[in-house]
Every structure is written in structure tokens, then in C-alpha cells.
Amino acid sequence: MAELKTKKTELSVDAFLKTIAEPQKQKDAFALMTLMEKATKAKAKMWGGAIVGFGDKRLKYESGRELDWFVMGFSPRKQNFALYIPGTVGKQQDLLKKLGKHKTGKGCLYITRLEDVDLAVLKDIIQNGL
Known about the structure:
Helices cover 35% and strands 23% of the residues. By secondary structure, it is of the alpha+beta class.
């Protein structure tokens, strides 16, 4: 079985977020970090080279495979932010309808800018993901 490449590291979250070239995107990344730290009551940690994760949990698959992962997190990608919030896509459709401009993937919520979404609704989505 292949080893998971995305693991918690000791890299600096602040240093990583400061590498975001676009000033507004960098500001949004720090705002997301604050929102998720408040909700999870966990300090931001780097997972791999591009994911900011909060908290720790042990995932167990039906196959018997186990791995360490974060409770929730985000990645500031070039085009958008990928938010990894448990249960968002499957269980929070009513809130997603109120959120504003976004897309969803299999287990991710994608937003381009925080100004495109209702922050109160995003806070509820984050809180409900816990």
C-alpha cells in the first residue's frame, strides 16, 4: 500500500500564506485561518506543502487502512480556495444555497474570494462541519 504524501509538517503557516502574491487573496487566507482556528480551537498546521489544516483525527477505512488527517482545512490554490470541511457537500445544501458564489466538488467547497460569499453563512458551514 502506498504511503500518504500529505502529512502534517513543521513548516510555518504564516510563511506559507505570505507567499501568496495577490494581496487580497493573502488577506482572505489569513481570515480563513482565523475563522477555522476559532471554530476548531486548534492552531493552524501545514499538511504537505500547500494545505493548512486544523486539528487531528484518525481516519479508518472499511479496508482497514488508517491514517492521520486534519479535522478541517483549506488550500489557497491559484484559481480559488479549496475548503475541506466535513459534511459540507452532502449535508449542508440549505446553507450552501445561501452562501453566495461557490462551487463544490466531491468533498470540497471552492470559493474565489471571501467578498463573494456571506461570511455569516460560511461561519455556520464551518461550525456545522465540526
